[in-house]
Design brief:
heterodimer, A: 274 residues, alpha/beta, Rossmann fold, 2 domains, two-stranded antiparallel ribbon, 8 helices, 10 strands, elongated, B: 287 residues, six-stranded mixed β-sheet, three-stranded antiparallel β-sheet, 10 helices, 20% strand, rod-shaped
């Protein structure tokens, strides 16, 4: 866990701020410390905002306009289906938990509101927006406790629930392994979506295993099969197809995508990319 | 005819089918994500192994059920019987028909024996060699008519011929049942020779005197030499009693094993080979 490391700076290009004042400079004009522009005094403007220096120079009353600083809505949706019960160096679910912890800590340290959705076959837990560190601990504890095996990742349910539960615009991090059919178009119109894909390198590039009994982590079904060159190359092909489709979706809707492998340092990876 | 010795064993195949579905082998397995979605998608799950396994199982079960062929030909059964039927003139007035009826009843009872039939008149004829096919024998018996072999009677020849038939048989018990209603008057074999022949071979000889024209003393002598018994019958009802008694005396039919040709070796071989290949292929592929 990198709770002691420097927190990330969560950034967004879209205007996904709440109504409350905070630390993030928005393009709205209003109360704040960041200077926006100077303009002529108009009737109704606050007289306290008149800048005396400019007024003296120009001979007309000028007001200084500041850019409003608001707080960010940070939401994290984690798809912790059965497929996250895998990993050669570290479980995928563990990497997901680290990512949530990093993002959550960063949000809280920036005094932003942080909410979390834990999904698997259904919405497992929803932590409402909060600035309390307790809320984050609750989330992490729940994720650590959660039994992921034999839970089928339900992406349709996830997008639908996010659409209905996340009313305010938010900086939405979706953490999953990105295998499956899911449409982020509708969500990306409302929220600033960042897709964080957690993968294992063996999962992306499996070796020949020979005749082996495999148990699917999502359906718990046993498969007895011959994992030979043919099977692995087919696997790679269909995975590549899936990834290309996902990349296309991200490109189309302006979604930032980031792939993190379990053998990599989640913190460094997020720091460089978010 | 092809059949199974223990056909109920074939039910075992259902146990295997049910087990294949419900209680799968608990071998070492690894968890892997998206197996069905990506890894083994649309891939035929090793059909060769599957086929080999099921061929092995089913042929092993078939071998266990013991397929056999029972043959309708001379088989080495434990009892060989030669029935000697008198067809000379002395059997006239319907005696022959009655005797045939009784013989027919006797033959029908002893389905697990090999039975031969000798008819005599002027000389002795082998009507049917020693056979297990009862139906054929009954048909042949029906064809026996009065005087089919002449009008005189050659009892000694008939007995000698029967001994000749049983001489090579490997059955445990060999029986001759002589039915006659007259005295010998045409034989080429002399009485002394016959008696020495009878006493030489381990063949039981039963004699039945039927009607009133026979030589009771002579028949008794023959039966004694042949370690059997001499019976006397005046009419058909007594004849049937006598045949029943002989039937009881020599009744081991229920203890006899049916005579089969065992074929279990072939399916066993197939099972062996296919399971061997199954293990071989499994070991090659299991890295």
């Amino acid at each position: 866990m990198h709770l002691n490391t420097k927190t990330l700076l969560l950034k967004t290009k879209k205007q996904v701020y709440s109504q409350r004042l905070g630390n993030h400079i928005t393009k709205f004009y209003g109360e704040g410390f960041e200077f926006g522009e100077l303009r002529e005094y108009m009737y109704g403007d606050d007289v306290r905002k008149i800048d005396w220096k400019t007024t003296a120079k120009m001979g007309k009353p000028f007001v200084k306009i500041y850019q409003e600083e608001r707080e960010l809505n940070v939401a994290v949706a984690t798809m912790m289906g059965g497929s996250s019960y895998f990993g050669t160096t570290k479980q995928k679910s563990e990497a997901m938990r680290e990512a949530v912890a990093l993002i959550g800590m960063s949000a809280l340290s920036q005094n932003d509101r942080f909410s979390h959705f834990l999904f698997a076959d259904k919405l497992v837990k929803w932590n409402k927006p909060s600035k309390q560190i307790f809320s984050l601990f609750d989330v992490l504890e729940e994720m650590g406790r959660f039994e992921v095996l034999s839970r089928k990742s339900n992406y349709q349910k996830m997008t639908q629930m996010l659409w209905t539960h996340l009313n305010k615009k938010a900086l939405l991090y979706i953490i999953s392994d990105g295998i499956g059919e899911f449409d982020l178009g509708k969500l990306s119109k409302k929220h600033d979506v960042v897709l964080i894909i957690i993968r294992d390198k063996f999962e992306e590039n499996p070796q020949e295993l020979g005749l082996i009994q495999l148990i699917d982590t999502e359906s718990s079904q046993g498969f007895f099969g011959n994992v030979d060159n043919d099977a692995t190359s087919n696997y790679r092909k269909s995975l590549a197809k899936n990834d290309i489709r996902l990349a296309d979706i991200c490109k189309k809707y302006g979604i930032r995508m980031l792939k993190v492998y379990t053998h990599e340092d989640v913190y460094l990876k997020l720091l460089n990319s978010i | 005819m092809f059949s199974f010795e223990y056909p109920w064993v074939l039910v075992l195949i259902f146990v295997f089918i049910v087990c294949d579905k419900w209680c799968k082998e608990q071998s070492e397995a690894i968890f892997f994500p998206h197996v069905s979605l990506l890894l083994l998608k649309g891939k035929n799950r090793t059909p060769t192994l599957h086929i080999l396994k099921w061929i092995g199982i089913s042929s092993a079960i078939i071998a266990l059920a013991s397929p056999v062929v029972s043959l309708h030909q001379y088989l080495e059964k434990k009892h060989d019987i030669v029935l000697i039927l008198d067809a000379s003139d002395s059997m006239k007035d319907g005696k022959l028909d009655k005797a045939k009826q009784e013989l027919d009843a006797f033959i029908s009872k002893r389905t697990s024996n090999n039975i031969g039939l000798v008819t005599f008149g002027n000389n002795a004829l082998i009507a049917s060699p020693i056979t297990a096919d009862i139906e054929i024998l009954r048909t042949i018996l029906k064809l026996q008519e009065l005087g089919i072999a002449g009008h005189m009677s050659a009892i000694n020849d008939a007995i000698t011929k029967s001994y000749g038939m049983l001489y090579r048989s490997k059955a445990k018990t060999k029986i001759i049942i002589l039915l006659t209603s007259c005295t010998d008057n045409k034989s080429t074999i002399q009485k002394d020779d016959l008696l020495s022949l009878i006493s030489k071979f381990p063949i039981k000889l039963y004699t039945i005197g039927y009607g009133n024209g026979y030589d009771a003393f002579y028949l008794n002598e023959l039966a004694k030499a042949g370690r059997g018994r001499a019976y006397e019958a005046i009419d058909a009802s007594e004849l049937s009693k006598i045949y029943n008694e002989i039937d009881k005396r020599e009744d081991v039919s229920s203890k006899e094993e049916p005579n089969y040709i065992y074929l279990y070796l072939y399916p066993l071989f197939v099972a062996w080979i296919s399971l061997l290949f199954w293990i071989y292929i499994r070991n090659i592929k299991g890295i």
